[in-house]
Amino acid sequence: xxxxxxxxxxxxxxxxxxxxxxxxxxxxxxxxxxxxxxxxxxxxxxxxxxxxxxxxxxxxxxxxxxxxxxxxxxxxxxxxxxxxxxxxxxxxxxxxxxxxxxxxxxxxxxxxxxxxxxxxxxxxxxxxxxxxxxxxxxxxxxxxxxxxxxxxxxxxxxxxxxxxxxxxxxxxxxxxxxxxxxxxxxxxxxxxxxxxxxxxxxxxxxxxxxxxxxxxxxxxxxxxxxxxxxxxxxxxxxxxxxxxxxxxxxxxxxxxxxxxxxxxxxxxxxxxxxxxxxxxxxxxxxxxxx
Length: 290
Fold this sequence. Notes:
alpha/beta, 8-stranded mixed beta sheet, 9 helices
């Protein structure tokens, strides 16, 4: 499948707080739905941030640890478990595009928008692909420790039989991706692991039974597999996104674009209304909360 034939803009990596990054994803979807450019972007979490899945129970979070360590906590629009986004160890991306230009079937759309992500891994020399067969979950509140499924979970590393504790023959999860629809647009965002601080990934949760050693058996970072620094990894992801979009003859790509003042104002509103709002973050949506 080819990229949608639309006008794209690439917004290169910006370091912003997690609530603002989630608001900007939503704003990008609103812009695409309103006839503005579709958005490709990379971003960094500053400070480090725990994002909760859309329906995740707030009781699963160690709020005291996050406060002591200066870790932001917000809630995503997408489902799944919580993800600790390290300011250095996480490389984030998102794609916002009009819904009418992509497949209506969720998995078809997901696989289309994951194409540039898999291409980025290939360019980095990382052998990554969807996991071959389901792998049992270890701890449901943590996204990276949930069941791995061939339809959407990306793993990387050496092949071969098990015996390494992962159940996936030495191949470990390296990316988490998810999408939602908002105002006639699709937004897909994801995190590529560059460096994995297993202890901090686990300490943000209140009662994780998983050890850091077991976490490292399930999750791997780009920096463990290939000799590349983080800046080069980000540049590679940006190049893969750009080349994917521009390969469609009818598409245009502005490769050094930025947010408009109106978009930044709208994002600031969403931060206050939602992504830093205590009711939104600390009450599970769908159970009487926001």
